[in-house]
Amino acid sequence: MEMSRRERTGVVANGPMPALAGTDVIVLAGGLGSRIRPVLGDRPKILAPVAGRPFLDHLLRFLARHRARKVVLSLGHLAESVTAYIAGLSPALPVETVIEDRPLGTAGAIGFARRAVASDPVLVLNGDTWLEIDFAAMLAAHRREPGTLATIACVRVPDAGRYGRVELADDGIIRRFSEKESGPGRPALINAGAYLLSTALMDDLARGPARSLEREVFPRLAPGTLRGFVADGRGFIDIGTPESYARAETVMAAAKP
Asked: In which domain, by residue range, is 18 found?
């Protein structure tokens, strides 16, 4: 069904439409979590306790507040711990799980979850990353340019060394990605782990065989079809290392419930 003008612009009769209304969300949470294992042991990263609650609780409450249509958790390593936890929840939005029988990488995991989502675009989030972002503005930017296949949320950080850098043109087109640096990095824009992916790209991922979204898929997209959306980095944190996990308590304690 074609969207009305009000739906396309994010405005409804009684005020602004919730930012993610009608949007399906895939949360990638199947990784091994090797770097954080000394702190978490056999607990999956997405269940790491942060500010008094498992990280998954924060994500689900955040997505429910923005009225996402459903959440699909892409699981693999320690999936049984996550499914057992979900079984005891009463989330404010539908939650579905898909479980890999072997590691598929980011692109493979998204392609595997394709059958569980229906919106265009689909929001994909890294399950170890928190990002306070204006999703309505990001969606509007994604839809503004015909032919956009993917939009990546980017934030500026003081040390981009362990993330790698994203270089944007003035019109938001991504020029290139730079690899991670050894030793201390410099301030730069980075991939913040939130993506809007079009139906066409989702279908391509479902056909395989790419494993890495960042190294195999994004660099090969046609020029002008991959864009960046610069978000406020003050609400950005990942919990992938012991050091960043330790900082997450402060960021999440200040996050909206």
From this structure: 5-253
